[in-house]
Structure formats: structure tokens, C-alpha cells
Amino acid sequence: MTAPLTPPHQPPHDPAWPPPPPPPLGPAGDPITAAEVLRGAVVTGVSAVVGAVLGLLWLWLAPRVLLISDGKGVYLRDSEGESAIGADGTFVLLALAFGAVAALVVFLWRREGGVPLVLGLALGGVLGSLLAWGVGTYFGPARDVVAHAKSVGPNVVFEAPLELNMAAAAMLAWPLAAMIVHLALTALFGPRDPEPEYWGPQQAQPGPKSL
User: Fold this and answer.
1) HSE of 158 in the Cβ direction (CA atoms, 13 Å)?
2) Pro residues bias located where (predicted)?
């Protein structure tokens, strides 16, 4: 008794069975190239620089917390005001808008996406938010409240320093908005992978009829 020449897990050698197709290649399986890494770095750098614009807008639009001094201490002029919360809300709303616009620009630039671009959007959003925070607080009202109160004198209203009370959450608004919007745009309008070719038994072609 001899062993079969054709293994049981392979189809017999038949012209109706073509050779197995090569493994599919696509964006998901291709290695990350140096050009893609460079593009991700460009997205990171541009996003970080644009953070300065966010900081200036925050400084311009955020509501102010007003203080007053009686010569012995510094007090809130309106103890029931919500200006401090309004400053945080203004920063978050602006950061969400900047993240959405950044994702749209990157998608229009490179529709096929890629891991480096997404990482560039996320890292650039964090760096841009940090720069915006620094710009807003640096160019805003003086940080030394006591010295500022002494310089303006008693019973004179002055502005408190611009601050973020929920800084950790505010720093995530831009990158989260950028990644979500970019993912949605890629899923809706991004290029589609080609359909895999059918591999299986081919239907026999009819031959010439004999007379």
C-alpha cells in the first residue's frame, strides 16, 4: 500500500485550480516609510506653532475675573461670578475647533491617512495647547496679584491673571477632536482597499464541437 501522492489538504493538480494568489498588499500592510514619518513631523510642528494663535484668541475672548483691594487684602469683586469657569470653557471650545480644522486640513492634504499623520495630529494638538496656555497667561494680566493691587491702589478694580482651572482636561480637547474628526473623514471619504480577487475552481470553457 503506497501513500497518496497528493496531500489531503491540497487540491489535486488540475488546470481548473490556478496557483494560489500572492498575499495582498495595501496601506495597512505596508511598512511605514521615511516620507510618512516626515509628514507626521510636519503636522506636529505646524500644529504646535498654530497653538500661539489659539492662545491669543483665548486671551481676547475669555471673560475676565475682576479683583479689588482695600489696602489690606485682595478680594473678588463679584464673588458669585462664573468668569473663571468661562475662561476654561472658552479655551476648550477654541481647542475643539482648532482640532477639527487641523484634521480637515490634514485629510485634504493626504487622504490616504496613515499612522504618522494621526500621531502627528495628537502630539501636535497637545503641544499646541501647551503653547496656547503659555501665550495666554504670559501676555495676560500680571501674575503677581499683590504687586498689581499695590500698583493700582485701594478700591480700584483690576483683572486677575488668566488661568486654566481644568488644565489637564483642556489639554486633551484639541488632540481628541483632531483624531475623531480625522477618523470620521477617513472612514467616510477615504480611499477604499481593492476588492480581493476570487480564487477557486474555474468554470471549464466550452471547447469546439466535433463534427
Assistant:
1) 23
2) 1-26
